Amino acid sequence: MQSPNNKMELEKESPQSDSQTVVKLVNGHHTDEDHDGDEDQNEGLFQISVKLPHDPYKIQVMVSLQEQVQDLCQSVVEFPRTFQYTCFHLEYNGNRICDFLSEVQGLKANSEIVLIEDPYTEKEARMHVIRVRELIGAAGDRVDNLHGLSAGLSLYDSVAAEESSEGSAQKGSSRVKDHPLVGYDLNAPSPLQTILPMAQPLPPRTIKSISLSHWNPPPYSLRQKGHLLYLQVTTNEGEQHQITAHVSGFYVNKCSNSKFDPFPRPAPKNHSAHSLLTLISHLSPSFDAAFQALQESNGKKDPLTIFPFQNAVPNSPWLVSPCASALNTHQPDITRSQENYLMSGVDNAETLRDWNEEFQTTRELPHESAIDKVYRERLTSKLFADYNDAAARGAVLVARGDVAPLNPSEAKDAQIFVYNNIFYSFGADGVSTFASEGGDEAARVAVGKDVMGIQTVNQLDIPGLYTPGTVVVDYIGKRIVGQSIVPGIFKQRQPGEHQIDYGGVEGKEFIADHPDFVPVFEKLSKALRIKKHPVWDKEGKRHDLEGSVETKGLLGTDGRKYVLDLYRIAPLDVLWAEDEGNRENYPHRIAILRLELVESYWRSKMSQYEADRRRVNRAEKAHEDNGDTGAEVSKIQKPSEKGEDALDQERVDISGFSLALNPDVFSGQVPLTDEEKREWARDENDVRDACGYLRNKILPELIQGLHDGDVGFPMDGQSLTQLLHKRGINIRYLGKLADLSREKGQRLQALTMLVIQEMIARAFKHVAIRYLRHLPFPLSTSCTTHLLNCLLGAEVNPSPQPDIDEWMTEMYPSDELAFKNVTPAALKTEIEHQVKIRYRFTLDNEWSNSLRHLQLLRDVAIKLGLQLAAREYVFAKSQLPCQDQTSTLNGINGSSHDEGKKKKKKSSDNGSPSRVTANSGAVTTFVPDDIVNVVPLVKDASPRSALAEEAWEAGRISLEQNHKQVGQELILESLSLHEQIYGSLHPEMAKLYHQLSVLYYQTEEKECAVELARKAVIVTERTLGVDSADTILCYLNLSLFEHHVGHTKIALAYVRHAMDLWKIINGSNHPDSITTMNNAAVMLQKLKQYHDSRKWFEASLTVCEELFGRQSINAATILFQLAQALALDQGSKAAVNRMRDAYNIFLNELGPNDRNTKEAESWLEKLTLNAVSIAKHAKDIQARRLRRINLSTLVLLGTKPQPQVGRSLPETTSSRNDVNNPHLDTRSIDELLKFIEGNESSSPRSKQKKRTTTNPKVRGSKQSAITSL
Fold it and tell me: What integer is the mean pLDDT of 37-48?
């Protein structure tokens, strides 16, 4: 259970950790301040006492009057010493507290509230048993249709613990590891273990088992006497106890396995307690110690890593530990099958909810005051989370065929279902509604856009306009829509009446325009920049609609106005449709503009209007003045800065600006009169302009921003999609994006590769969906692995065969096994075709030979919801074992048969890179066992909290205006609102923690920044994925913050982890890796690891020169830093050369007067003087050595054998042996002077010696050294 009052959990569950800092941040007050007074009590926190009926008898709790009593109760439940309380109420001055604490008369600081234990009901008893099982670690693993394996995983603790464990291990080790980046190979691929959880020791076992007894449920006669449940508990001592759950609590009864007697035992074994947790501690002598050890074990983890989810869906990683691993071992637990009863009761009636009524009544809650708004948005967030969870679970059952359709005689795509009071249908054109728009493709797109439109309407929160709860679930090739049942949607209307009250009916043949819908649709259209426009029915009658003809209004039997079918709330992208030319047609005709693009276009036109208006006003003002016109114009154009701001504020006036787009142009509507035709033509021109704005401004600006480094570079397909959607760019423009990035050349090569990979992954997804859509569920893994072998394993096996069990082949007809005929060549052709028609891009002929296999596999797995077993997959023949391994395994070539078995066993233990299929015996990259699970992909319509976002935006603006105190108060208020509304684990919380940590870092509150950055890492990992682009960014920010507070070693551990994640999701040479490597190099300098720091600067320079060029300012900046690093690493001559290069670039690009040029010139002089000084000192030392050598036998110099090239002298050579060492530099003084002047290159021997002092992993060219970054 997770407390909504998260600040209390952090304070009480981890009192020894740094979370107290977070408590201060959450509440905006220091918890250690004196709260005896009543000042600021209405706004801040104060302390009260809670009197308990049992030990410890009293606890202190921090509360706020804005909280509800449920928050306080939850805080008590989560407090370590009051875990046993679940069924109770709170009283103050003898009166029960029922709602907000602000309504309690006389409640103030140091008041005492009394906890009163309540009698149990059956439901309360069941919830208590579930709670106790979770607390004592007896819950076991659960099989979940919605959440996959390792759902909500966080690796933060293991990443942080790795560095601390290494540090502690060094104390007893003679070989000290200086920092986490020692030996880090920038060329080597990242191990997949990077994104897998570490094996954890088993937690302390508190009890052997706790389950429902076979005597449960109580007979009718005993239910009347207060018997609720019968339990069976087996303690660690091996004793079995039968327990009765009674309205008064729990007691040990006299039942045995064969005898039923559920009444209390006689003394002295008459143990009883109100809480089952307390009763178990009386029955098992070892329980208290084991439970304490379990709490201590859990306390070692960050609380956020183990908090359960409440208002969000945990992320399910695409790569998980194999089923045979200890992490995924299936353990026996008889209560696993009993949990549904414990949670939902006998008839499952407790989970049946009237979702639609809950949604609408929540929307109708008052929201005038701030407290009302918080309560309403908090309840809305929780309701949407519950509905999304329930709808997704039902959709999975529908996809698997476990729910009976209401119309079994209809075609499969036309079947509808009702489960858990949720209406389900397939995202396919089962009744030919979209026959003219593209059939199934159009229907699939329409339902996806519909849920986005509903989310937009929910966010607008227009009074009087209602939407049904809607979820779209993609699962094993099927798209399923789950909606709450709108009252009256299935009502049989009278003859002549239509099912719809506003908008198009039965296509566009009939148009309904109920007047009651006009006011609410008018508000909606104004918010969406939609123009009121005419449409015509089949009889040519004109109807003026506020929205698209496809958007429908339904007057429910409950009297509410519902809006449906919101997939056409923006105009069609007419330029895309007209750009087809000789190309094949786009798969559907629902290619509409995104709302972000419409809003951006509106703002652009508004800015243009305002600029034109100001220009006209200035011209008129200048013309009216009879004095010195030029002086007046000058005064207008160049006022004081303060006056300009005030003047601009006064002049902002957009009351005369009006722009709205017609969503129904180019959709078959035919105006009749000349005036209608002229108006229609103007509407068409407006839409064309919006489409041209996307092509001619938004796309080029994005490319230019990426080229110049003004826009953050995407790392994978998900971040690329977010980048495009944020700017209103549809995914269908990926081909155009690839063409534009190619024109920019090497600078955007990484973007070109990423865009092409995304197109291939999406094309493969569409191909896979076509085969999986009507495929029986047991065959889905065989189909998917076969398609993956054709895409990624064609080099390993050019002719893969699907691995299907024989009994499945016999059970299912052959027409359902069409995927068996897919070959790598056929799949390649189909992918090329899909890319061509969907993105209008032609792949190169050799595209399949240049794939980044691991990255593409990850993208495909995420898009299909696959969870793959972690092992080293082989994608090329070069990675296969040697060809003579077969003969070796068979005992040939001098090896025995037993030795072959050992080799085979060893290969198996290490995770064989290739598998042998059951049917053909041929080696393939993937087998069905590699797909451990498939998780549903959910698109929901949950709105964001407007109240929390307003507080954040107000705080941010206040800080920008230097109102620090007001800004911080507003931001902390926003954080408190976010936590109250969303809970601790939510993507919006991850985003806020990240933004707030950056904000605190900028305001020099670095300790707070570190704490918030840690929370951002954990929440991002658990909600967005352990290897998401956002997670990498959070780790990099955390490393920077940790470095600035003096924790450089742990910062480098975070850098290493982020670099490993980078290699997995993107590969090498990502543009943003330059900054990361620079930061790592600076951190290494802080640790005085100058040699390693220099290597990271060199790697950064290599990537920078490849992307920006050798003569770029970016390269000069890194050269400047590298020169300093070389100087610190005793490379004085190289430092001079690098600084000279940097100076020349700054001089050519920025000029001699630029600050960077002058600084480089100053450093060049200093480094040159230092190099000359060092060289002269070395010359003097060498001269003394030469004099010593001349005193000895000169013949030895020429007769002593020289070491071979590539060999070095022993490191233990003493200083005495140095005298006769011919490997020392014996050049003349003149040669040394030439060396000082930089006119002589090192001899081959000195080169070899210098090479042996560097890292052997950097011996190759710079290109190879940076390949894997």
Answer: 59
In terms of domains, do 254 and 365 share one?
no
Six token digits for residue 76: 């008590």
- Letter string b/e over residues 709-740, b meaning 16 or more CB atoms within 10 A of that residue's CB: beeebbbbbbbbbebbbebbbbbebbbbbbbb
In a domain, 487, yes or no: yes
pLDDT on residue 752: 94
What are the pLDDT digits (tens) for 1087-1115?
A: 989 989 999 999 999 989 888 888 889 89
- Which single residue is written with the structure tokens 């960014």? 1033
Helix (H, G, I), strand (E, B) or coil at 553: strand
3-state secondary structure at position 483: strand
* pLDDT tens for each residue of 905-962: 444 344 444 444 444 456 899 999 999 999 999 999 999 999 999 999 999 889 888 8
Pairing of strands 561-564, 552-555: antiparallel
Joined together, the tokens standing for residue 380 give 């809305």
Of 75, 45, 72, 327, the residue nearest 193 (C-alpha): 327
Query: 962 lies in a domain?
Result: no
Distance in angstroms (rounded) separating the CA atoms of residues 660 and 663? 9
Report the predicted TM-score, pTM, of the whole model to 2 decimal places. 0.84
pLDDT per position as a tens digit, 57-87 = 899 988 888 788 888 888 888 888 888 899 9
The partner residues of 49 in beta bridges, in order of sequence, read 60, 112
233, amino acid identity: V
DSSP 762-784: HHHHHHHHHHHTTS-GGGHHHHH
Going by pLDDT thresholds of 50, 70 and 90, the confidence category of residue 1269 is: very low
For 320-339, the pLDDT digits (tens) are 988 766 667 777 777 777 87
Question: From CA 9, how far away is CA 27, in angstroms rounded?
Answer: 13
β pairing state of 416-419 and 561-564: unpaired
| Within-domain flag for 1112 | no
Task: Judge whether 101 and 5 are in contact, CB under 8 Å.
Answer: no
Instruction: Give the structural domain span for 563.
Output: 355-569
pLDDT value of residue 626: 53
State whether 278 and 384 are in the same domain.
no
Q: How many distinct structural domains can be found in the chain?
A: 4
Distances (CA, A) of 1161 to 649, 1098, 1102, 1127: 46, 21, 23, 15
Burial of 999 (0-12, 13-18, 19+ CB in 10 A): buried
pLDDT score recorded for residue 63: 86
CA–CA gap between residue 1120 and residue 1101 (Å, rounded): 10
Contact between 129 and 379 under an 8 Å Cβ cutoff? The reply is no
CB 475 within 8 A of CB 395: yes
Please, where are the H alpha helices in 173-286?
Answer: 220-223, 276-283
Is 97 within the bounds of a domain? yes
Weakest mean pLDDT among 120-124, 165-169, 1252-1256:
1252-1256
Pick from 113-117, 534-538, 774-778, 899-903: least confident: 899-903
**Residue count of the chain:** 1269
Report how far apart, in Å, the C-alpha atoms of 1166 and of each of 68, 1098, 1163, 1239 are.
67, 22, 5, 20
* CB 771 within 8 Å of CB 818: yes
d(CA 107, CA 104): 6
Let me know whether 378 and 392 are in one domain.
yes
For residue 1219, the Cα-to-chain-centroid distance in whole angstroms is 63
